Inverse folding.
């Protein structure tokens, strides 16, 4: 039995109206989770490549702390200065083009490498590495991932608005963590402290 044309028309209108908000939601989610991150972040290469694996583990056997030491005030001293690299690399000791460039353009010129720091935080955020490394016994990999086994440096994904690395927010624009080290936002710190029953006042981290 055929339905009257008006009934069919009204049914189609109802279905269309119900699909509009669903299509709008899907479009919004796609724009927010796929398009927006592409527009928000730009990719910048590091000035020179660095092979962590050649220096750590089965390579030269160095530890994270050999190059990334802690300052006297407990702060992370950051990336080693060129004078520290020059202790071993006054001349190239390998055959890679990256090392040759590094030695000629930076070590021999006594020029610091303008590294783009993935974990750089705002100036008003104080993070005492010494407490987390020595007292809490956290491994570097807990927050920074397995950089020590990498053979190269991935591109720096820079937020076009803030200038900070995407590593701070995390890989997911929705804030969904795929790994413990995926994200260094304040709520990531709070979540970890809550798990370990270690609630601290705001002034401890924000000076």
């Amino acid at each position: 039995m055929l339905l009257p044309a008006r009934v069919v028309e009204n049914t189609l209108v109802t279905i269309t109206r119900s699909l509009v908000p669903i299509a709008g939601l899907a479009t919004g989610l796609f724009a927010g989770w796929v398009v927006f991150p592409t527009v928000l972040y730009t990719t910048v290469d590091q000035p020179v490549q660095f092979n962590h694996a050649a220096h750590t583990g089965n390579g030269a056997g160095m530890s994270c702390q050999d190059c990334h030491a802690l300052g006297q005030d407990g702060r992370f001293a950051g990336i080693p200065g060129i004078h520290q690299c020059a202790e071993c690399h006054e001349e190239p000791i390998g055959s890679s083009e990256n090392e040759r460039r590094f030695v000629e353009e930076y070590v021999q010129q006594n020029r610091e490498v303008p590294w783009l720091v993935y974990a750089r935080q705002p100036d008003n955020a104080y993070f005492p590495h010494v407490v987390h490394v020595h007292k809490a016994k956290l491994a570097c990999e807990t927050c920074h991932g397995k950089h020590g086994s990498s053979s190269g440096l991935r591109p720096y994904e820079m937020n076009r608005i803030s200038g900070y690395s995407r590593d701070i927010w995390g890989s997911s624009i929705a804030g969904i963590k795929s790994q413990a080290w995926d994200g260094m936002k304040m709520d990531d710190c709070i979540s970890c402290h809550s798990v370990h029953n270690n609630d601290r006042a705001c002034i401890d981290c924000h000076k």
Remarks:
- DSSP finds nine helices and two strands in the chain.
- The first strand starts at residue 41 and ends at 44.
